[in-house]
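Q: My hope is that you can spare some time for a protein that puzzles me. Underneath my words sits a plain record pairing an amino acid chain with its backbone structure tokens. Those tokens are not coordinates but codes from a learned vocabulary of shapes. Thank you; the sequence and its tokens follow:
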Amino acid sequence: MAHKHRYMKAKIGPFQELPHGRLPGQGIVPKEAYPEIVRRAKDECNAAIGRDYGVTGQTIGRIVRRAGQ
């Protein structure tokens, strides 16, 4: 079977200055909550814990690693 080399309309937009850092709606996990997060991480999914604090499961994983040391 032959592949069709058809023209694709891919328009490149103008340069945009993108925001850096955390977005205004994202949460910050307080240090007082770290022991509870470590305890919950043993039997709950990181993403489920992260939803409670407004962060991702990856962030919760980092907190668990740091607090577990």
Observations:
- The two ends are 57 Å apart (CA to CA).
- The helical segments are 34-41, 46-53, 57-68.
